[in-house]
Amino acid sequence: RAAEAHGDVTVLVNNAAVDDRHAVENVTVEFWDNNQAVNLRPHFFSAQAVAPGMKRAGGGSIINFTSTS
Question: 5, 12, 49, 56 — which has fewest CB within 10 A?
Answer without folding.
Answer: 5
